[in-house]
């Protein structure tokens, strides 16, 4: 695997090859990853994985025509052929009035922030196995646990680099460490499965393996004896591990491409009060060790901290260069690249600011409601905002959690849900999208 500096040089070299065969403009992306993982099940080694990949993608422009192509063969001859094939494809493509590189005057300049994404230590296979064993042992020690789907520990390294024909070149590296456990509790027809996992750039930021295993075991056992829920309208409380999906739907609807296609439920609502006053959703792409931290975006523009939602109102759309041109706006540094093709939109680390109430206080006045711990399916319409997903969780009766329930559906409309959303004060900081426990009033439960 190349260093970030070598990767940046390699991307610039590919740009030069494209210019020599006639490209008016071009950008090139280098990506490489290596990872090793160990999986344990019932105390025995079940799988060992080692993977390595290296890939380059080239996007070329011939006037307003463009084409993208990629290869995992990085030999000089292969890259020459890649460049020649890309320009031939571009010349045969239809014109796109919005195609082009990011505005040159907006490219990153000066020093990049220190993000601390690389852990210099590399765990051995023996260390990974010991972590997986410790986590599964802790899960299986919980009373009521009867089986295991396995425990896995992994570590990896990655490098990303981008170069453009109009003056940008840069790269950065990152490492990853993760641990997960999936466990089964109960017997016969009342078997229940649940899991726990953590991921971080630095191994030191993972909690102890036994803590993750214990959490997985306790979650599985808590689901034993699940009952059914009657249908009706009631408050729904989302556990932090699923509450972040609500922000995911918001971010998707804020994408410039969705707005330009007029396929977003947020269309024409830029000035509207979407959330309650005081609600803030914050993006921090430079958070040290953040899972989505990055010094520049997929077009070479700077990433900056901003409030996506301030005092309950959206502050603007998330724009790459193409959607910005289509909307007559400036790109916002949210372009992302993964392999070949044109940029998509992605955000940095995001969190919903914590509220004033504890989760217990948030639920205290709920006579009859549900606490959701798992969501199933993809029943969300990004155009209308209609929301309907299968769920499992716990009943809330007279302000208290009152036993597990399953096989029900939570439904509503995202605009109404956002307007009725209240965050608790239990915000934690280890996910890419960090959200505290949230309460949403007026949802519909479809059960028995």
UniProtKB/TrEMBL annotation:
Q: Which residues form the Metalloprotease TldD/E N-terminal domain?
A: 26-90
Cite the Metalloprotease TldD/E C-terminal domain residue spans from the record.
Answer: 231-447
Q: Where are the transmembrane segments?
A: none
What are the Metalloprotease TldD/E central domain coordinates in residue numbering? Answer: 121-223
Family matches, as InterPro entries: Metalloprtase-TldD/E_C, Metalloprtase-TldD/E_cen_dom, Metalloprtase-TldD/E_N, PmbA, TldD/PmbA_N, TldD/PmbA_sf
Q: Which Pfam families match?
A: PmbA_TldD_1st (PF01523), PmbA_TldD_2nd (PF19290), PmbA_TldD_3rd (PF19289)
What's this protein's family per the entry?
Answer: Belongs to the peptidase U62 family.
What name does UniProt use for this protein? TldD/PmbA family protein
Which classification does the entry list for the species? Answer: Bacteria, Pseudomonadati, Pseudomonadota, Alphaproteobacteria, Sphingomonadales
């Amino acid at each position: 695997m190349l260093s970030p500096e070598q990767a940046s040089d390699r991307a610039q070299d590919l740009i030069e090859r494209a210019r020599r065969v006639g490209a008016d403009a071009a950008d090139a992306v280098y990506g490489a990853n290596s990872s090793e993982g160990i999986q344990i099940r019932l105390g025995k080694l079940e799988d060992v994985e080692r993977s390595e990949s290296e890939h380059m993608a080239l996007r070329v422009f011939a006037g307003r025509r463009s084409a993208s192509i990629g290869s995992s063969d990085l030999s000089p001859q292969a890259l020459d052929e890649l460049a020649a094939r890309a320009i031939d494809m571009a010349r045969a493509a239809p014109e796109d009035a919005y195609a082009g590189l990011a505005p040159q005057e907006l490219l990153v300049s000066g020093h990049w922030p220190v993000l601390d994404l690389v852990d210099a230590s590399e765990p051995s296979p023996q260390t990974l196995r010991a972590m997986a064993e410790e986590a599964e042992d802790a899960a299986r020690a919980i009373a009521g646990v009867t089986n295991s789907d396995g425990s896995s520990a992994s570590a990896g390294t990655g490098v990303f680099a981008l170069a453009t024909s109009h003056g940008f070149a840069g790269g950065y590296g990152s490492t990853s460490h993760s641990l997960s456990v999936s466990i089964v509790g109960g017997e016969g027809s009342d078997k229940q499965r649940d899991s726990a996992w953590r991921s971080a750039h630095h191994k030191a930021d993972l909690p102890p393996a036994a803590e993750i295993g214990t959490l997985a075991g306790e979650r599985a056992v808590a689901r034993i004896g699940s009952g059914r829920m009657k249908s009706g309208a009631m408050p729904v409380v989302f556990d932090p591990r699923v509450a972040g999906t609500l922000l995911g739907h918001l971010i998707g609807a804020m994408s410039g491409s969705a707005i330009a296609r007029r396929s977003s439920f947020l269309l024409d609502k830029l000035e509207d009060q979407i959330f309650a006053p005081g609600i803030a959703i914050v993006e921090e792409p430079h958070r040290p060790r953040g899972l989505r931290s990055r010094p520049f975006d997929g077009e070479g523009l700077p990433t900056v901290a901003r409030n996506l939602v301030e005092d309950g109102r959206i502050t603007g759309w998330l724009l790459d260069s193409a959607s910005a041109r289509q909307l007559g706006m400036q790109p916002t540094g949210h372009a992302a690249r993964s392999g070949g093709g044109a940029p998509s939109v992605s955000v940095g680390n995001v969190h919903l600011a914590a509220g004033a109430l504890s989760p217990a206080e948030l639920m205290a006045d709920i006579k009859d409601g549900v606490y959701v711990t798992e969501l199933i399916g993809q029943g969300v319409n990004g155009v209308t905002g209609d929301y309907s997903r299968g769920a499992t969780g716990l009943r809330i009766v007279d302000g208290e959690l009152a036993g597990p329930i399953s096989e029900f559906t939570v439904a509503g409309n995202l605009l109404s849900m956002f307007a009725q959303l209240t965050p608790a004060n239990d915000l934690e900081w280890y996910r890419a999208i960090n959200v505290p426990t949230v309460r949403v009033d007026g949802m519909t439960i479809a059960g028995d």
